[in-house]
């Protein structure tokens, strides 16, 4: 019989075994617990990344894992996820992506102002929402949805977009009923009945200073690695070919990235739950956020 105490002991033994079996996938060797996590200075970490780059193609250590390209690199470095073993590591992070990827990554969550209005659940959902596709099935029959991914370059098919107002130092959410796609005509008629077809009043927004503070705590200096990807005999392989050091997050660059359509704002709410408002970045645009971009030769 396995008691709760025995389970804890077994779990501890499994953890110890896992620590003893940290694998250097590039050389098919086992590290000992002593060298499973190496402590690097910034310069020695650069040399480690160069060494990995010079190995050429390396087999995916995490097949079936969407984050395999980053996890394999972390395994090769002998580090926990995003836990850089360098002085002031709290100011640095490791980011790795497939070369040419257009995938989006979430930078941070931040609800729009005026915060007191709780804009998403009390304005967007009741006044601009539409019936949830699972209403009267998984959710109550009156469940509403407000899911929009908006950007600065163009409006969504429901008329929403981001606007950057440098005079008031705000990133605004804008609505234009004339931009709504005809297939949403029934919804637009319901919006007219509920609130009218004018611009949002008041407009929800994020202040520049609030964005700079929030983003500055999330967008750290980073080692940014691009990996080529190929498959051979059913196996995935990565070549960590390009290494950047990115430093100096810049609000002006953040706003320029948003203005260029490479950053988007994602609303995901239903009557029963607001999943939070996210600022999401096209991964390939990450270097655009920094004032200092150094490629490691």
Description:
- This protein is of the alpha+beta class.
- It has two domains: 1-36; 42-153 and 211-297, 3-Layer(aba) Sandwich (PvuII Endonuclease, Chain A), CATH 3.40.210.
- 27% of the residues lie in helices and 31% in strands.
- It is built from seven helices and 16 strands.
- It has helices at 4-20, 42-54, 68-77, 119-128, 185-194, 208-218, 251-259; strands at residues 23-24, 29-30, 58-59, 92-98, 104-109, 130-131, 144-150, 160-165, 170-175, 205-207, 221-232, 235-249, 263-270, 273-274, 278-282, 290-295.
- Strands 5, 6, 7, 13, 14 and 15 form a six-stranded antiparallel β-sheet that branches. Strands 3, 4, 11, 12 and 16 form a five-stranded mixed β-sheet that branches.
- The protein starts with a helix and ends with a strand.
- The model is unreliable at 1-36 (pLDDT under 50).
CATH class annotation of the largest domain:
Alpha Beta
Fraction of residues in helix: 25-40%
Number of domains: 2
Strand-residue proportion = 25-35%
**Termini distance?**
59 Å
The poorly predicted ranges are 1-36
The overall pLDDT average reads 85
Instruction: Count every beta strand, where a strand is a DSSP E run of 2 or more residues.
Output: 16
Q: Which keywords apply here?
A:
single chain; 297 residues; alpha+beta; PvuII Endonuclease, Chain A; 2 domains; 6-stranded antiparallel β-sheet; 5-stranded mixed β-sheet; 7 helices; 27% helix; 31% strand
